[in-house]
Amino acid sequence: MKKLLLTIVSVVAVTLSAQAQLSFGGKGGLSLTNFIGEGAAHDVRANYHIGAFLEYQASPFFAIAPEVMFSAQGGGEKLADLQIGDIVNKSAKTKWTTNYVNVPVMFKFYPVSKFSIDFGPQFGFNVYSKVQTTTNETDFDPKDNKDNTKAFDLSLGAGFTYYITNSIFLQARYNVGLTKAFDDVIEGIKNNARNGVAQISIGIKL
Predict the structure, then answer these.
(1) Residue 168 to residues 51, 157, 162, 171: CA-CA distances in angstroms?
(2) How many Å apart are CA 194 and CA 175, to the nearest integer?
(3) Where are the beta strands (DSSP E) in the chain?
(4) Residue 132's pLDDT is what?
(5) CATH of 21-205, one of 2.160.10.10, 3.40.50.300, 2.40.160.20, 3.30.2350.10
(6) Calpha distance 194→108 (Å, rounded)
(7) Whether the Cβ atoms of residue 48 and residue 74 lie closer than 8 Å to each other
(8) What is the pLDDT of residue 190?
(9) In b/e form, how buried is each residue of 13-44, taking b as 16+ CB within 10 angstroms?
């Protein structure tokens, strides 16, 4: 009986090893980004992402795909009746730009050969953070906000991938921040903002 079990395990291991494939590629596309959580600025901004990935397909049904992505992120907020000196601005806005190098690690389940359901953690490293206020009269210079921005961001991503051909694919994903994007207190105001990022990508697997 033990010999039979060992034989079965060996056959399965050899089969999985034979089926395993390592591939790589690149992708990029549109990001819709904002901040979520109490006290967060909720206006969505159109941004972009671009990067590369590896995919290790352990079986026809399961793969692991680490990625390295540059992701332009941030959000905005409309400011009602912003007063600067004697002037009251009715259409003032604040825009946050927070860019990251993100490292998602996606677990991919293939119910059919050209479609996968993807989810996994994303590890983000902030590389740029500025805030800018604009009014109907003036565009103020962006101010550096890196000291108030967390250097590390942990998110959870979920979505799907659909292969148009054997190598060209479309992908949709939403990444929800699990950690705060900024310090607990910014200029005396408690801030619980987390990153929220919806992505539509097109890519190629080689």
Answers:
(1) 15, 21, 9, 10
(2) 10
(3) 21-36, 45-59, 62-79, 82-84, 87-89, 92-112, 115-134, 143-144, 152-163, 168-177, 185-186, 189-190, 194-205
(4) 87
(5) 2.40.160.20
(6) 25
(7) no
(8) 62
(9) eeeeeeeeeeeebbbbbebebbbbeeebbeee
Only one residue has tokens 């994007």, namely: 181
Instruction: Give the type of residue at 118.
Output: D
Q: Which residue has the tokens 């565009």?
A: 139
Distance CA 80, CA 136 (A): 12
Q: Cα dihedral sign for 62, 66, 70, 76?
A: positive
Looking at this protein, which amino acid is placed at residue 181? A
pLDDT in tens, 82-134: 555 555 555 678 889 999 999 999 999 999 999 999 999 999 999 999 998 87
